[in-house]
Amino acid sequence: MFIILGIAALGVLLYVAYRALQPSAPAPDDGGQTIVGGSLPSPAIPQAPAGGGSDGTTPLPDLPSIAEERLVRLTDFPVISPALNKDDTRVLFYKKSGGDLFSTDFTGKTQEKQTNLTIIGLIEAIWQRGAGRGVVRYADADIVKAFLQIGTSTIAILPQGITSVAWSPDGGTLAYTFIRDDRLELVITDATGKNPRSLLRTPLTDASVAWITSDLFVFATAPSGTAEGYFFVFSRRDNSFVKIFGPQRGLMGLWSPDGATAVISGIPAGKKETELALYNRAKKESLPLQLATLPEKCVWADAGSLFCAVPKIIPPGMMLPDAYLTGSFNSSDRIVRIDAATRAVSPVFDEGDFDMTNILVTKDKKRLFFVSRRDGMLWALKLE
Q1: Does the structure show a pLDDT above 50 at 25?
Q2: Distance between CA 157 and CA 148 in Å, rounded?
């Protein structure tokens, strides 16, 4: 009897030793999702239990992946208005909860708080090139207020009710618009927000401004797929104000750094769906790109090329940009690169499930950054 029990015990010990020496089993199938950057693509980011990471989210798990170093999640909390610093070595952003200003390296491992200023009701920040200064807009009850963030320690209060903001191409002068006596007024100041000077008053109260050359400002009417949109250009040298494009429903635009070209979206005459095109200001011509996306999902790398996040699927009959701007439509995007001279489109990235916005690219075109609109988190993508 004891001999039989001894043999049985020996068998159990041999089995345990055998299992301990076996290699780990492969992870179960994840249902077709691609694991990149050490975590599942947004929005399937696991939530931490109490006492976990910032804002209740968990730190990035250390998972092996071929694409691990290409796509990295930089924050585990929602951010607003990211921008690259002057040296293209860090990304600045405001934390959505509380409005604290942070910076991070390109791995997300060294985050630094830049100010102790708390901003409740933060809407956006419009950064000077190089992110040395930014106009911060926030909601105080029903009033939109603004201040100028100068460096990390100084602010300058700006007028209430600012409706749009633009920096001069060289970053040395600030322009903003506001409504006064049922007119849209354009004002410019120095880079500290001082010495304001009114340049223009127009009845286009719903228009926003872009400063495209040292002389020229472009006014774009509010975009909607149910309304005709226009671009008007104002020359402060000639004091002229003329229409340069439109009418086109749903019209939106993003101007190149030299102000010569705009990537535009809208619904051309006779069409039902939005299309992307390149508009040449000098030639006054618009050339289609055979893509459907919105300019706010694009970024100019330089005067001759840009990157765009393009929805993989847009449901038929989807009214753009309205459905996107109101948040009733969230896209799943791929990234492409567009050559402005040839209109050639090259694929860049087509993994995961991201609705991309606030896209940035470094001057050397080696890294691209975006915010996932579903959860507000900041990501970095290595391009080369």
Answers
A1: no
A2: 6
What is the pTM for the complete model shown?
Answer: 0.81
Residue 330 pLDDT exceeds 50: yes
Measured in degrees and rounded to the nearest 5, phi and psi for residue 18 equal: -60, -45
Q: How many CB atoms lie within 10 A of CB 11?
A: 10
Angle at 165 between CA 154 and CA 219, to 5 degrees: 165
Distance of alpha carbon 191 from alpha carbon 379, whole angstroms: 30
| In contact, 245 and 279? CB cutoff 8 Å | yes
| Contact of 83 with 91, CB cutoff 8 Å | yes
Strand partners, 197: 188
Angstrom distance (rounded) from CA 113 to CA 128: 20
Closest CA to 146 of 127, 133, 162, 130: 162
Rounded Cα distance, 237 and 215, in Å: 6
Instruction: Check if the beta carbon of residue 272 is closer than 8 Å to that of residue 282.
Output: no
Tokens of 57: 């989210």
Contact of 133 with 173, CB cutoff 8 Å = no
* Tokens 């929805």 -> residue: 311
Q: How confident is the model at residue 319 (pLDDT cuts 50, 70, 90)?
A: very high
Q: What is the DSSP letter of 54?
A: G
CA–CA separation, 302 and 263 (whole Å):
13
Residue 134's φ and ψ, nearest 5 degrees, are: -150, 140
Whether the CB-CB separation of 70 and 36 falls below 8 Å is answered with: yes
pLDDT of 45-76, one tens digit each? 333 333 333 343 334 434 334 445 899 999 99
- CB distance 176 to 164 below 8 Å: yes
Q: Pairing relation of β-strands 183-190 and 173-180?
A: antiparallel
Q: How distant, in Å, are the alpha carbons of 53, 199, 200, 318 from that of 239? A: 55, 9, 8, 40
Complete DSSP assignment for 259-315: SSEEEEEEE-TT-SS-EEEEEETTTTEEEE-S----GGGEEEEETTEEEEEEES---
Rounded Cα gap, residues 343 and 308, in angstroms: 13
Contact 219, 200 (CB under 8 A): no
- Helix extents (H) in the chain: 2-20, 322-325
Residue 207 predicted with pLDDT over 90: yes
Neighbours of 357 (CB within 10 A): 17
